[in-house]
Design brief:
Blueprint (H helix, E strand, L loop, with lengths): L5 E3 L2 E3 L3 E4 L6 H10 L4 E5 L23 E5 L6 H15 L3 E4 L12 H13 L3 E6 L3 H10 L5 E2 L13 H10 L5 E3 L5 H9 L4 E4 L1 H4 L4 H21 L24
Parallel strand pairs: 3-4, 3-10, 4-5, 6-7, 7-8, 9-10
Antiparallel strand pairs: 1-2
């Protein structure tokens, strides 16, 4: 929606759907899905790219750099040191200060390691990066990340790749109320209704990958996600009616015709 720009650090985007680039059936389908989702910002895993040999085929070959901004990520890092080094490699190779910081603390759940995440983000902010941290849906952690100077927070809705949807909407609502920087929901979105719900809760954007790349029809799902994000954003701005236990007549009772009893 051109009249509702998404401001992220020094940049402005029309699309509030950020898409990943991994696990698609092939690069052609990935490129079609990115177009169908109207994505303008796409994330790539630096640790899965061969940055030493530019002649080796890469997923970057299928991404039109004139059309999409790249958001490199530190997926696969388990310490602050590794995440910082990966971010520096990304800046040098891709010529961008944007970095999605992931520091994993557990191999089974892929939940973030908060201690190492905060350490890495502090160092990267000091080094001039536009830092977007993947984090737990914890309001306190998100407030600390905001205080550090991160450009956004990216709380999970559910474990990465689980497709379980939003498990704790109440925490996301609290985060939205507590922070002033953008809140991007990252991980756990499974289908379009999850994306719409996240936007209705006040998310500024959605980042997802598996829900599209793993769908039976990735291009069709990317289209559905794009529409869901737009619908959820509009619903949030319009404001839903209060929920009530009992019915409320939609038509006014004044002026209704009453028949007298026999």
């Amino acid at each position: 929606m051109p009249d509702d720009p998404f401001i992220l650090g020094p940049r402005s985007y029309s699309s509030r759907l950020i898409l990943g680039t991994s696990r698609y059936p092939n690069p052609s389908i990935m490129a079609q899905a990115l177009r169908a989702g109207w994505a303008e910002l796409v994330t790539v895993s630096i640790r899965r790219l061969n940055l030493r040999d530019r002649n080796t085929p890469s997923i970057l070959d299928a991404i039109d750099r004139s059309r999409y901004d790249l958001l490199p990520n530190t997926a696969g890092c388990y310490t602050a040191k590794d995440a910082i080094l990966t971010a520096q490699l990304a800046r040098e190779a891709l010529e961008t200060d944007f970095i999605k910081v992931e520091v994993i603390g557990d191999e089974d759940t892929l939940f973030p390691d908060v201690e190492h995440l905060l350490k890495a983000c502090l160092e990267l902010v000091r080094d001039g990066f536009v830092v977007l941290p993947y984090c737990n849906d914890d309001p306190v952690t998100c407030m600390k990340l905001q205080d550090i100077g991160c450009a956004a927070v990216m709380p999970l809705a559910a474990p990465i790749g689980s497709g379980m949807g939003i498990r704790n909407p109440y925490n996301l609502q609290i985060i939205r109320e507590k922070i002033k920087i953008p809140m991007i929901i990252d991980a756990g979105i499974g289908t379009a209704s999850d994306a719409a719900r996240a936007m209705e809760l006040g998310a500024d954007a959605i980042l997802l990958n598996s829900a599209v790349s793993g769908a039976h029809d990735p291009v069709g799902m990317a289209t559905a996600m794009r529409m869901a994000v737009q619908a959820g954003r509009l619903a949030h701005q319009a404001g839903r009616i209060p929920t009530k236990l009992y019915a409320t007549a939609s038509s006014p009772a004044q002026g209704t015709i009453h028949t007298s009893g026999a």
